[in-house]
Amino acid sequence: MNSNILKAIINLVDTPHYKLKETYQENHNRANSMGDALEEYIKDIFSGTYNIQDQKERLEKISNVFSYLGNNSNPPDAMLKNGDAIEVKKIENNNSALALNSSYPKHKLYANSNMISASCKNAEKWDEKDIIYAVGVVDNTKLLNLSFVYGLDYCASEETYTKIKTKIKDGVECIPGVEFAETKELGRVNKVDPLGITYLRVRGMWGIENPWTVFNYIYKKDTTKEFNFFALISKEKYIKFSNEDRSNFEKFVNDKESLHMDEVKIKNPDNPAKLKEAYLITYSK
Questions:
Q1: What pLDDT does residue 28 have?
Q2: What span, in angstroms and rounded, lies between the C-alpha atoms of 186 and 203?
Q3: Given this model, what pLDDT does residue 1 score?
Q4: Phi (first) and psi of residue 8, to 5 degrees
Q5: What is the pLDDT of residue 32?
C-alpha cells in the first residue's frame, strides 16, 4: 500500500483528534515523550491507522506503508515505500526554531549521504528522496499546530551547508600546535592537557526557523481555532502524484468546508528573487 502527503492530509481531516498523550500512552502505550508521541501520530496519519486499537494490526499496516523507521541519531525519522522521506520535529510554540543538532537542513535526502544509517540506505532501492518536514507545536499533551513542508521549498541546496561546514572544519584543523584526530564532526583535538588524557570535540549544532516563521508571508493561523494545519506542495511536485490521487484529493477538498487549497508563490530557497508556484493547503478546527 503506497501512501503520500495527499492521503495523509485526508486522514488528518477525517480523524480530528489531537490529544497526543492520551492517544499514544493510554491507547497505544508507545510514547515516552511528546516528541515520540508526535512521531507516532505522524505514522498513523500516513498509514491510516489512527483508530486501530489492536497493536499487531496497527504495526502490520505501518510496515506496509513505510520502508524505514529511524532513530534519534540519524535522519530521517521515516521513509514511505517508493515515496518521500519524513523528518518529524516538535516545538513548544510558533516562535521556536527547529533544533537539528549535528544534521544540517535537508533539501533532499540522498542514499550516499554519510549522515544516514546503513539500514536506511538498504531499506529499499533508492538514490534520492524528497523529504517532508512535519513540524508540530505541542502544548503539554495537545497538538495545537501542524505543518508539512518539503525540504525543496524550505531549505537551500546541500552545497550551501556543506560548504560552510567544510570551511569551519578546515579552519579548526589549521590551528597550529594541537593534535587533531580523524572524526566525522567538525574536529577533535587530542592530548589537550600535559598528561595527554583530555580531548576536545568540536561539534556543529544546526537550527532553522520554523515553517510558520519562514512562510508567514503566505500563511497566518486562525487564532480562534484550537487546531491549525498547513501544507505546502510545489506545483512541480504536485503534478508528479497520480491522476487518481490528485482527483481524489481535490474532490475531498471541495467536500470539506474547513479545508482549502490555494495557489501561491513562494521564495526559492536558493534564490529568493525567483518565485516558485505552489499549492497552500490549510485546515483548522
A1: 57
A2: 5
A3: 72
A4: -65, -40
A5: 58
Question: Residue 143 and residue 36: Cα distance in Å, rounded?
Answer: 13
Beta strands in the chain (DSSP E): 66-69, 78-80, 85-91, 98-101, 109-110, 128-129, 131-139, 142-150, 179-180, 187-190, 200-202, 206-208, 228-234, 259-268, 271-284
Q: State the cell numbers at 208.
A: 532553522
Could you say which residues of the chain have pLDDT below 50?
none
Conformational region of residue 177, where left means phi above 0, alpha means psi within -120 to 50, and beta covers everything else:
left
As a 3-state breakdown, the chain gives helix, strand, coil percent values, each rounded to 5, of 30, 30, 40
With 0-12 / 13-18 / 19 or more C-beta atoms within 10 angstroms meaning exposed / middle / buried, residue 217 is exposed
Average pLDDT, the chain: 90
Q: How far apart are CA 159 and CA 167, in angstroms?
A: 12
Q: Cis peptide before 76, with omega less than 30 degrees from 0?
A: yes
CA–CA gap between residue 117 and residue 115 (Å, rounded): 7
pLDDT tens profile 112-160: 988 899 999 999 999 999 999 999 999 888 899 999 999 999 999 999 9
Rounded to a whole number of angstroms, the CA Rg of the chain reads 21
